[in-house]
Amino acid sequence: MLVSFVLMNLEGLTLKGSSKQFLLWCLALFLSNGFYGVFMNLQQTRMNGAERNEMIVVTFLGMAALYAVIQLIRDPKAFKTGWRMSKKPLIFLLLCCCVATAAVHMMLYVLTLIDETVLYTIDNGGVLILSVLYSFILFREKLTKPQLAGVALAAVSIVMLSV
Fold first, then answer.
1. CA atoms of 162 and 71, how far apart (whole Å)
2. What are the residues whose beta carbons fall under 8 Å from the beta carbon of 103, sequence distance 6 or more?
3. Residue 81 to residue 98: CA distance in whole angstroms
4. Within a 10 A sphere around the Cβ of 122, how many other Cβ atoms?
5. Which of 23, 80, 119, 139 is least surrounded by Cβ atoms within 10 Å, i.e. has the fewest?
6. What is the per-residue pLDDT across 52-96, written as a single tens digit (0 to 9) for each?
7. What contacts 42, CB < 8 A, 6 or more positions away?
8. Which residues lie below 8 Å from residue 93, measured CB to CB, with a gap of 6+?
9. Per-residue pLDDT tens for 95-133?
10. How far apart are CA 62 and CA 45, in angstroms?
11. If we measure between CA atoms, which residue out of 132, 137, 111 comes closest to residue 122?
């Protein structure tokens, strides 16, 4: 899966300037996602499979609260004015919330069926594949051979994980 990510993002990947910073952020994301899976697994083992849903809810609420505190510290005025919006963005926000809620509920259900390590790998691989396909469909980007190889490799790795 990691090789498929590199292949899909091969174009424009250099190790100069901001690319090093980008790669460090990718590494931090890779490690934090891995730690999250480990903590979820430890929590499930310790609680004998119970309170799994609550752990995810607490995690998401914790992230929202942390972001609110950071935003309040950075610019309290922008935090207050950021809540004002017209009807069109509000409708879009509500639709996004409904879709995200449905996705979290589906993930919570699937977590009862398979191991979280496998689920998060499949989820991340699916995001990679859909990102490339959406860029092709919505933004009319041309897919390069490495990107196609990356999509194929991600799909194969997802299938191999599910067997």
1. 40
2. none
3. 24
4. 19
5. 139
6. 667 777 777 888 888 889 888 988 888 777 777 788 888 988 898
7. none
8. 85
9. 988 998 888 788 878 877 877 777 777 777 788 788 888
10. 22
11. 111
Within-domain flag for 109: yes
The answer to the question of residue 127 being in a domain is: yes
Both tokens assigned to 99: 């879709």
Q: Considering the entire predicted model, what is its pTM?
A: 0.47
CA 155 from centre of chain: 17
Please return the burial class of 104, using the count of CB atoms within 10 Å of its CB with bins 0-12, 13-18 and 19+.
Answer: middle
The tally of domains found in the chain comes to 1
CB atoms within 10 A of CB 128: 22
DSSP code at position 17: T
Predicted confidence (pLDDT) per residue in 129-152, tens digit: 888 888 888 888 888 888 888 888
| Radius of gyration over every alpha carbon of the chain, rounded to an integer in angstroms | 19
**CB neighbour list of residue 30: distance below 8 Å, 6 or more residues apart:** 2
Query: Where does 47-144 have alpha helices with state H?
Result: 52-74, 76-81, 87-111, 116-138
Domain with 149 in it: 2-48+87-162
C-alpha 29/C-alpha 124 separation (Å) is: 12
Residue 107 in any domain: the answer is yes
Does residue 73 form part of some domain?
no
